Amino acid sequence: MSKLKNKVVVITGGNSGIGFGIASEFKNEGAKGVIVGRNQETLDSSVALLGENFTAINADVTNLADLERVFAITAEKFGKIDVIVANAGGAVTGAAFGTVADIGEADFDKTIDLNLKSVYFTVHKGLPYMNDGGSIILIGSNAAHRAYASFSLYGATKAAVIHFAKGFSNDLLDRRIRVNVISPGTTDTPVFDKFVPAEQLEAVKNYWAGVMPIGRIGQPSDIGKTAVFLASDDSSFLLGTEILVDGGLSYLAK
Ligand SMILES: NC(=O)c1ccc[n+]([C@@H]2O[C@H](COP(=O)([O-])OP(=O)(O)OC[C@H]3O[C@@H](n4cnc5c(N)ncnc54)[C@H](OP(=O)(O)O)[C@@H]3O)[C@@H](O)[C@H]2O)c1
């Protein structure tokens, strides 16, 4: 399989969960490039699995100088970039999820920094290093479409990310860069470990499998295969659109 043969890719959060699932599928399709994260241990173990065509860069996507460094190093090592995946996000280290009654300014700012501002600046900083005709993939969430307890702020950032795909595509028409967004439903990633005590993990995942109309939670490969489609010429007529990869969670009433 070589839908992405020699395409240069940058995947933020490529050292865990959905990001690693995307990187693995990209690798299977012949891509090369960079994964970005802050945990050196998982960066090293992930890049060892991805093989010699991938490099890991330790960087914080909420830091604009770090983002600049990521794209400069990528372009120097691999040449101009064809695909950017702005995936890093989700649970914020040191910031709580909560209701509008609970979340104050400090946690608000941290959540916006990771789940919204970083997406904007990943694209902004990456563009000068990108080939015309490339593809940018943003990661939204089904939480943009449904109100889950304590997820108002997170859901709002993802709703804004879905808008970014439309707005950025419009902004970039002259460069033929397509921007689309994948919104996952509940997906089996290490994010569960951040919220759920180890002894309850299986029960919580089983609960979600029961909630999902399709009867199982998503796997990172489900998102990865969709990302291959959006990165490749197979999706050349798609821009500014959202693909829900959510097992029916957003719109099917079970
Ligand atoms: N899992 C789900 O059910 C689900 C559902 C809908 C949407 N999503 C979205 O999917 C994306 C990936 O989530 P996941 O479930 O795969 O979570 P995950 O396993 O916790 O992975 C999050 C990734 O983001 C990176 N990251 C976090 N903060 C960062 C920062 N400041 N700078 C650089 N990298 C950072 C992490 O790397 P380091 O720890 O090394 O920094 C890690 O690679 C997120 O945008 C999330 O909102 C997930």
Q: Would you mind describing this structure in some detail?
A:
This protein starts with 7 loop residues before the first strand and ends in a 9-residue tail after the last strand. The longest helix is centred in the middle third of the chain and has 22 residues, at 105-126. It is built from eight helices and seven strands; from the N terminus they run E-H-E-H-E-H-E-H-E-H-E-H-H-H-E. The model has no long low-confidence stretch (mean pLDDT 97). The chain has 254 residues and is α/β, with parallel strands linked by helices. Helix 4 packs parallel to helix 5. NADP nicotinamide-adenine-dinucleotide phosphate binds next to helix 1 and strand 2.
Beta strand count:
7
User: Which fold does the CATH topology refer to?
Assistant: Rossmann fold
Largest sheet: 7 strands, parallel
Tell me the strand percentage band: 15-25%
| Second CATH tier, the architecture | 3-Layer(aba) Sandwich
What ranges have pLDDT less than 50 throughout 5 or more consecutive residues? none
| Strand and helix order | EHEHEHEHEHEHHHE
The top-level CATH class is: Alpha Beta
Task: Provide the structure class.
Answer: alpha/beta
Tell the overall outline.
globular
Q: Taking all residues together, what is the mean pLDDT?
A: 97
What percentage of residues falls in helices of 4 or more residues? 40-55%
Spell out which ligands are present: NADP nicotinamide-adenine-dinucleotide phosphate
Organism: Flavobacterium cupreum
InterPro entries: NAD(P)-bd_dom_sf, Sc_DH/Rdtase_CS, SDR_fam
Protein name: SDR family oxidoreductase
Family: Belongs to the short-chain dehydrogenases/reductases (SDR) family.
